[in-house]
Amino acid sequence: MNTLTATRLHAADVNITMVSNTPAVTDYARRYFGSWWNVFEVPPSSMCAAPVVFADVDTNQYATLQTLVETCPHEETTYAKAATLVVRDTEGTITAVSPTQQLAYRHEPASGRLSVIGIESGPVALAAARIARDAMRALLLREGWTLLHASAVTDNGRAVLTFGEKGAGKTTTALALAHLGWRLLANDRIFVHPDGKGRLRVLPWPSAAAIGLGLLDALDWYDVARNRLQAGETLHPTQHPDVTEAVLAGRREPLWEPGGKRERKVQIYPDQFADWFGLKLATGGLAQDVLFPRIQHDAAPAVDDCRRAFGDADFMHGATEDRYPDILGLAPAGSSSDARRSVADHLAKLPQHTVVLGHDPAANAAFLHRLLNE
After folding, report:
1. In a 3-state reduction of DSSP, which class is residue 16?
2. CA distance 314 to 112
3. How far is 40 from 32, CA to CA, in rounded Å?
4. How far is 17 from 207, CA to CA, in rounded Å?
5. Residue 268 and residue 237: Cα distance in Å, rounded?
6. Taking the model in full, what pTM does it have?
7. Please, are residues 360 and 299 in contact by the beta-carbon 8 Å criterion?
8. Digit-coded pLDDT (tens) for 279-320
């Protein structure tokens, strides 16, 4: 008989407990979230102390849920890049299965119970982490936090937030400063909350980071990643196999999807920033400055004359958020309009810098460090 293990995720004032019959599942959660949230092992008997995600490796239970969904009227959608069937019963319980991934999901709103069931520990661990993070997101939004489309680094608790569309340079800016000794707090999205003292608190959104092969090389991380992969270590499983093959083969030029519209990138676990590349990570901070970068090939880093205002796309909510569909009905549509207005007011009062950056991380970092310390 399997022994239950339990791990609690804690951020701000909210908690989620993950319980599993397979230690590899809760070990994965501690690894994935532990760099940026407070994550710790707890006795399984304490699972009533917080909302719970049950994540089990159980072939029979998966087969039962698959049969239930396939024999009932169901909807079809794509979730986590896999065809998924979804059933809702009259009591509000939602059950979903992904036959190709051999994963089942279940949400029982009456009890608050969330379940992820599969036949192999790896897919269950990845799916359970995704569901637990979405559940934490919902709790934080209900507590008044707002999710922004931004990266962030800190220096002695002072957080610098970087905004922009995909490809604008949020990750490039954050990693340039982190490479210089700043602490990386998040690379693509962050939680913020006014603290009642005129300040804006910042929390990370734990996620893998997507880094193009060219940027990886420019940061002098390419050989580190290649050596680690050759030694048998792995990157995040969402990474396309072509990227892994390219790194192992020593190819450093950007790798594009068919059609050339989207770059395939290296997907780095949060803890690999520290373990592989020696970065320092932050678990929170207070917003002090705002950057709006623009990447231009061969440009010398400089202040940009173009001005940029905050827009709806800077707030992760509803249609502005690039995320998997909410098949289990976990999350509200987003933070309230009042919360977003309050955050926008706080952001508007911070020093704002619109900048042009080139492809030299060291030059970018030196320029940004001078700019932010003037």
Report:
1. strand
2. 31
3. 12
4. 18
5. 9
6. 0.91
7. no
8. 999 999 999 999 999 988 888 999 987 778 888 889 887 555
